Amino acid sequence: MKLFQTQMMADKPGDDGDASILIETRPRTKRPPLYKVLILNDDYTPMEFVVHVLEQFFGMTHAQAFEIMLTVHKKGVAVVGVFSHEIAETKVGQVMDFARRHQHPLQCTMEKEE
Ligand code: TYC
Fold first, then answer.
1. What is the pLDDT of residue 101?
2. For residue 9, is pLDDT > 70?
3. Which residues does a 6 A CB cutoff place in the pocket of ligand 1?
4. Which residue CA neighbors atom 12 of ligand 1 most closely?
5. d(Cα 28, Cα 51) in Å, to the nearest integer?
6. What is the signed CA dihedral for 77, 79, 80, 81, rounded to 10 degrees?
7. Residue 70: burial class (beta carbons within 10 Å; 0-12, 13-18, 19+)
8. Which residue CA neighbors atom 5 of ligand 1 most closely?
9. Predicted pLDDT of residue 16
10. How many beta carbons lie within 10 A of that of residue 21, not counting itself?
11. What is d(CA 88, CA 35) in angstroms, rounded to the nearest whole number?
12. pLDDT at position 22
């Protein structure tokens, strides 16, 4: 808890206004929101391409990447990382760009964390 010091003003004759009081102020700093990056399933993107994306852009080992790819394949979607807004946007852009350049319909999106 921070203490905020303020000077009292003179309001009565004989009061020189030198008194000071300490007011407790509640810190109102909020952590910036985090964003989940999600990969979506489709019927056409090759499994090995998705594994490569997860290794390349999300720093996963081959085993981790294969497991997450299978989760997306079976369940339709998976969170592949949680980042600041700027980093999440960059990751989504990199994945979408890479998929488009290879003519795969792979979709990557971001979602604000609760
Ligand atoms: N369903 C794709 C296939 O059978 C594989 C795949 C997995 C595609 C994950 C996208 O995010 C994805 N080739």
1. 98
2. no
3. 39-43, 45-47, 50, 69, 72-73, 106
4. 41
5. 42
6. 160
7. middle
8. 47
9. 53
10. 9
11. 6
12. 62
